[in-house]
Specification:
This protein has 24 helices and 16 strands. The chain is an alpha/beta fold. It has five domains: 88 residues, DNA polymerase beta, N-terminal domain-like (DNA polymerase, domain 1, Orthogonal Bundle); 58 residues, 5' to 3' exonuclease, C-terminal subdomain (DNA polymerase, domain 1), CATH 1.10.150; 92 residues, 2-Layer Sandwich (Beta Polymerase, domain 2); 74 residues, Beta Polymerase, domain 3 (2-Layer Sandwich), CATH 3.30.210; 237 residues, TIM Barrel (Alpha-Beta Barrel), CATH 3.20.20. The strands form four sheets. A seven-stranded parallel beta sheet has the order 10-11-12-13-14-15-16. A five-stranded mixed beta sheet has the order 2-4-7-6-5, with helices on both faces. The protein is globular, with a radius of gyration of 28 Å.
Length: 575
């Protein structure tokens, strides 16, 4: 590798930054930054000075740095630089691109909170974990969140809730155009995928109006750039960074095109094969009998499925995971809906790391038409989240009693999110756990255990008779942290054996249980709870994302405990 002055300067600066992230001696750190500035401004031939060993005679370049520069030029890379990079989690240097996150602050969140990626940093901010950390504060936390959002604009992959907000804006804009006959979201947004790459919109209008509709679309206020424009398809990049496509079709083609562009590819392939077995051809233009160019008339998607002698398959289920076979037998579940939810659990109050009081959260739930709320603050091991000591549990539960006396027709259940320790034990004695109406157990530490250890750890906790449900069972943070190694078959089977509930965490950064496990949970006769994992009043609404994942995971109303009435829940919790 041929190096130039700029390359050498950059490597010296990176070494200085990596040393800062490691918390090394400040004089050593400064030496590398000073050396970078010296080389950047030198008039002499830097490479020649390094090759002949005379670089050490230059003021600001010591013997140690001189030797490393010699090695750098000789080998084309610096082993010292490489070793430094390998000594730190790769996500730490990436955080330097976020405004407000200098090396010292990165080191602080790494040392105090174990944060190693930008995704983890974002989630910690959303849970207010930086608010009370020394050297930070509410303003600093907000600035970091804003910086993360700006960075995500260019990543090309988006959390469902971010893409959803953008889709709502562009759909509302398009609905104002009086030449559009009908319109729907399509693609992964319509299937409620947890991570999406773009927004697909399908609409119909008269052929004579296509130019005006497309011109209106690409001229939208939220459009940053136009990447393609035609009569049947136009593509733009929105100011949020997400790509958006608008397709226009004839109104008679709309049901077939909507099915096709909703996907998934795997579902579409299986549907075409199924249609072929019935002597039909299926594509985005229609449903055709053999040797016929005339499509079977269908006004809606439901009629398309009916023409194939299939029950209607909800968009969320279209992943080729057995939905066509079930549709043939009319055996698809009647999926849970938002309107079925009567209350929510896993809500953090200001007693731990939430921003709202118990009463504020309860009133907000009442305002949303809910009947009950399950307060669920962190347990004492979660010191970073102001976890509750035994003394503070008593104080919190007395507060809940007062709120229950004050609010008529509404119930606040006493819960706790109890840490599963590395050995599978819980961080409260049984007599403390008995004071709660329900107990959620979750993993918040020691994520790097091997699969066998992690599986045994979680299963041990599920065997405790005082445990009600398992929280965010795979520990994933979407676009931030992969799920930890765990045998989910074993976890689900253990939960079934001991009659535990497996949470669907509706926080859009988690959406965990992964929907891909939903069918197996249902097959094992288990229930789920759709929980927002809220840390504020605004976060209560995240249960809606959990409902979307429950639907994608094949959950009917009767397998979601949030659909029970208050009295039914009291009986369940006291059983």
């Amino acid at each position: 590798m041929t190096l130039n002055r700029k390359d050498i300067t950059k490597i010296l600066e990176e070494i200085g930054t990596l040393l800062e992230l490691r918390g090394e001696n400040p004089f050593k750190i400064r030496a590398y930054f000073n050396a970078a500035r010296t080389i950047e401004t030198m008039q002499q031939d830097v490479l020649e000075l390094i090759k002949n060993g005379k670089i050490s005679e230059v003021k600001g370049i010591g013997k140690a740095i001189s030797e490393k520069l010699g090695e750098l030029v000789e080998k084309g890379y610096s082993p010292y630089h490489q070793d430094l990079k390998e000594s730190l989690p790769p996500g730490l240097p990436e955080m330097l691109n976020i405004p407000g996150m200098g090396p010292q602050k990165i080191r602080a969140v790494y040392d105090k909170l174990g944060i190693t990626t930008i995704g983890q940093l974002e989630y910690a901010c959303l849970e207010n974990r930086l608010r009370d950390l020394k050297g930070f504060g509410q303003k600093s936390q907000n600035k970091i969140l804003q910086g993360i959002e700006l960075r995500k604009k260019y990543q090309g992959r988006f959390h469902y809730h971010i893409a959803g907000r953008e889709a709502d804006k562009i759909m509302q804009y398009l609905q104002k155009h009086d030449k559009i006959i009908r319109m729907e979201l399509a693609g992964s947004m319509r299937r409620k995928k947890e991570i999406v790459k773009d927004i697909d919109i399908l609409a119909t209008c008269k052929e004579t109006n296509r130019d005006t509709v497309m011109e209106y679309f690409v001229s939208g206020e939220s459009v940053e750039s136009v990447t393609g424009k035609g009569q049947t398809k136009s593509s733009v990049v929105l100011d949020s960074g997400i790509n958006c496509d608008l397709r226009l079709v004839e109104d008679a083609q709309f049901p077939f095109a909507l099915h096709h562009f909703t996907g998934s590819k795997e579902h579409n392939t299986a549907m075409r094969q199924f249609a072929k077995s019935k002597g039909l051809t299926m594509n985005e233009y229609g449903l055709f009998r053999e040797k016929s160019e005339k499509t079977i008339d269908c006004a809606t998607e439901q009629e398309v499925f009916s023409a194939l002698k299939l029950a209607y398959i909800e968009p969320e289920l279209r992943e080729n995971m057995g939905e066509i076979e079930k549709a043939q037998k009319n055996a698809l579940p009647e999926l849970v809906q938002e309107s079925d939810i009567k209350g929510i659990f896993h809500v953090h109050s200001s007693y731990s790391d939430g921003t709202s009081t118990v009463k504020e959260l309860a009133r907000a739930c009442q305002d949303r038409g809910l009947q009950y709320l399950g307060i669920c603050d962190h347990s004492k091991s979660a010191f970073y989240a102001n976890g509750l000591s035994e003394e503070r549990i008593k104080e919190q539960q007395e507060d809940i009693d007062r709120v229950n006396e004050q609010l008529k027709g509404f119930t606040v259940f006493k819960g706790i999110e109890c840490d599963i320790l590395a050995d599978g034990t819980l961080d409260y004695e049984d007599k403390v756990l008995q004071s709660f109406d329900f107990v959620i157990v979750s993993v918040h530490s020691s994520f790097n255990l091997d699969e066998d250890q992690m599986t045994k750890r979680i299963c041990a906790a599920l065997k405790n008779p005082l445990v009600t449900m398992l929280g965010h069972p795979t520990g994933r943070l979407l676009l931030g942290r992969e799920a930890y190694a765990v045998d989910m078959h074993m976890v689900i089977e253990t939960a079934a054996k001991y009659n535990k509930i497996i949470e669907i965490n509706g926080n859009p950064h988690r959406l965990d249980l992964d929907w891909r496990w939903g069918k197996y949970v249902n097959e094992m006769d288990l229930h789920t709870a759709v929980n927002p994992d809220a840390h504020s009043v605004e976060g209560l609404d995240d249960f809606r994302y959990g409902v979307a994942i429950a639907r994608k995971g094949w959950f009917p109303k009767e397998r979601v405990i949030n659909t029970l009435t208050t009295e039914q829940l009291k009986k369940k919790f006291s059983a």
